[in-house]
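Tip: read the tokens left to right.
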């Protein structure tokens, strides 16, 4: 029997609706304003994006469709942290506040990585890469055991870490003795599943960023003229853009195959997740570099939106494990097979 990888009518509608809402409510002007005043995205969350938090409870393909549009618009704010990390972790320990998170009434985030930045179980006294910690209501702290402590974000000081990406704010927080005391045991397989799903959702978000880079690079190559011709007519640039397109196709296929494999409970779901994140990270970084080369000097200016996507591409490659990290994990799986 041949597998059907086409999206359903409902999923096509999900994509169209998300794309329309974000094009209208999250223009580049809002993304730029967020650099100086992070509070400008609060109305975006409260009026529109909180309604999508429940996607964290549903099929991963649906979450990936939405995440791809988040990446294409480099949306700031707590949407990814809540839907892909916070809500699923609260569900993993049957926290009574999970329903409020799913309904968008509360913002939740996750604290997993230690000071070395690796998203694996650790006993470090500090958690880093805690997304939107100062805006969250709840923080799900992953501890050895494995165990999970869901704490009020207001109960601790979140220290912002400045990164290349101005659209995704990250923090570090300290782990306390009380966190360890109130932590509930969580099934190791359930925890691994949450992180695997979040990794694939982030790969899909990178696909959206890559898509924007490719589409706008093509548009610029058609419009910019040199020697009386569009620069896109020059073979050297055509080859570069073809390579970008191939990267985008590979990343899209890898991300959605991984999502479908996880939803279907396929045996190679773990391997597919590593492939998805590694492929999407490589594609986004390559398309950002190539796009900058096609744009030339104008691409280096603050007024051009290209730098917003370059920042997201490089920073998101490192979030939840870099391409190198996932290549290493994939190699180990192949060696152990």
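Filled-in amino acids:
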């Amino acid at each position: 029997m041949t597998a059907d990888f086409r999206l359903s009518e409902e999923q096509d509608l999900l994509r169209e609706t998300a794309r329309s809402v974000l094009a209208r409510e999250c223009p580049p002007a809002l993304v730029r304003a967020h650099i100086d005043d992070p509070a400008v995205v609060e109305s975006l969350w409260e009026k529109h994006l909180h309604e999508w938090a429940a996607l964290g409870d549903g099929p991963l393909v649906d979450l990936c469709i939405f995440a791809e549009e988040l990446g294409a618009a480099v949306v700031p704010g707590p949407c990814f942290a809540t839907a892909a990390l916070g809500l699923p972790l609260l569900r993993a320990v049957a926290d009574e506040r999970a329903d409020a998170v799913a309904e968008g009434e509360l913002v939740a985030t996750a604290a997993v990585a230690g000071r070395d930045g690796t998203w694996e179980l650790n006993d470090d006294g500090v958690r880093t890469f805690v997304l939107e910690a100062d805006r969250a209501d709840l923080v799900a702290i992953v501890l050895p055991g494995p165990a999970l402590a869901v704490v009020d974000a207001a109960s601790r000081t979140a220290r912002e870490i400045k990164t290349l990406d101005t659209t995704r704010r990250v923090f570090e927080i300290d782990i306390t003795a009380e966190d360890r005391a109130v932590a509930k045991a969580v099934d190791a397989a359930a925890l691994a599943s949450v992180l695997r799903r979040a990794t694939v959702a982030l790969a899909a978000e990178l696909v959206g960023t890559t898509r924007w880079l490719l589409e706008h690079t093509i548009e610029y190559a058609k419009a910019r003229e040199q020697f009386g011709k569009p620069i896109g007519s020059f073979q050297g640039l055509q080859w570069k853009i073809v390579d970008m397109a191939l990267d985008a196709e590979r990343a899209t296929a890898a991300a959605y195959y991984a999502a479908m494999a996880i939803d279907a409970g396929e045996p190679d779901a773990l391997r597919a997740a590593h492939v998805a994140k590694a492929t999407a990270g490589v594609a986004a970084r390559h398309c950002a570099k190539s796009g900058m080369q096609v744009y030339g000097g104008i691409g280096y200016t603050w007024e051009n939106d290209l730098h917003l996507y370059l920042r997201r591409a490089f920073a998101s490659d490192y979030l939840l494990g870099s391409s190198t990290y996932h290549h290493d994990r994939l190699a180990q799986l192949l060696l152990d097979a």
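The radius of gyration is 20 Å. The domain at 188-336 is CATH 1.20.140.10 (Butyryl-CoA Dehydrogenase, subunit A; domain 3).
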